[in-house]
């Protein structure tokens, strides 16, 4: 998606440790016009899938997921990373290691919001090693829901998570795949 790639090139900052900082438009300050274009593109890519729910993980994926859900006309469910008094009843849980925070979280989704009747599209802002997606797919497996695939804003192709998931037969649609990056340069996969 060229508009997203252009924003990454003009506003993205590569930091040490394979960090791509895109907080001016994606995951701190959010450009809703860009999000709407991403939602439209993901709707085009998954238009024939009869999606009933969008699933994401807190926090940075929620904004994108909400806009994508508007394009599909379905609700968003987000996996919580911490225990909460708001979460009651039976839960699906799965451990997820966060590349960004360098720690493991137990993610949680109430069983009343994802069922075996659902056809679910997972949405996230970044895909690096694939740990968040693996945790979300695990929760969907526990629920018996149909996993339609995942829509990702930015994939770090050089970290291999997306390719490993695709090799397992999962449909991963990334709007921009960064193949290489370093100080002063970002190269995208064609």
From TrEMBL:
InterPro entries: PRTase-like (IPR029057), PRTase_dom (IPR000836), Pur/Pyrimidine_PRTase (IPR050118), Xanthine_PRibTrfase (IPR010079)
Main location: cytoplasm
Keywords in alphabetical order: Cytoplasm, Glycosyltransferase, Purine salvage, Transferase
Annotated positions binding 5-phospho-alpha-D-ribose 1-diphosphate: 128-132
Domain Phosphoribosyltransferase: 43-157
Reaction(s) this enzyme catalyzes, per UniProt: XMP + diphosphate = xanthine + 5-phospho-alpha-D-ribose 1-diphosphate
GO CC annotations, alphabetized: cytoplasm
Subcellular location per the Swiss-Prot or TrEMBL entry: Cytoplasm
Claim: Glycosyltransferase is one of the keywords in the record: yes
Gene Ontology MF terms in the entry: xanthine phosphoribosyltransferase activity
Family (UniProt): Belongs to the purine/pyrimidine phosphoribosyltransferase family. Xpt subfamily.
Protein name in UniProt: Xanthine phosphoribosyltransferase
Organism annotation: Holtiella tumoricola
Taxon lineage: Bacteria, Bacillati, Bacillota, Clostridia, Lachnospirales
